Amino acid sequence: MIRLATKRDASNIANLIEQRAVALNEQGSDQWTEYLEQDLLKRVETDIASGDVYVYEQADAILASIALLPPDEWDHALWEDGERGQYIHRIVVSEQLKGQGVGQRLMQHVLEEADGDEPIRLDCVADNAFLNDYYPRFGFVYVGSRNGYNTFEYKLEASVSA
């Protein structure tokens, strides 16, 4: 089941993000390293308070999460007009659910819930071939590259099908 996250979910979401950051680090990627160097629980609590964070819950366990947020410092650094839009961040799916379409369902849910009057944006490490191929399947269009990250914007006329 997909639902809005509550404050009670923050530590479970933070644990999912930390597990993924550690796994990426062990694979030699520095993607998400910053999450290992900050108070991740506080970051997630801020996300929940300032935007819409959705979780995928199964048998009372939080197994995936996605955040739809107003722009922050990160977004201002990557986008020339970073004050515009809604930003998707911290998409994470438990390893036990990988390949089961949970990330796809979360993405589709966020796109349906987002404010249609504001652009929906996201980014990924420029050399992450999987994500650079994945996001366009949902209707995201490559905008450009900045600071080692590729930026994408959702086009409403595109269909949501991955």
Automatic annotation (TrEMBL):
InterPro entries linked: Acyl_CoA_acyltransferase, GNAT_dom, YpeA/RimI_acetyltransf
TM region(s), chain numbering: none
Coiled coil feature spans: none
Keywords, ordered alphabetically: Acyltransferase, Transferase
Listed PROSITE patterns: GNAT (PS51186)
CDD domains xref list: NAT_SF
Record keyword Ion transport present: no
Residue ranges of domain N-acetyltransferase in the record: 11-159
Any one Pfam family match given in the protein's UniProt record, by short name: Acetyltransf_1
Keyword flag Flavoprotein: no
Protein's name in the database: GNAT family N-acetyltransferase
Protein species of origin: Exiguobacterium alkaliphilum
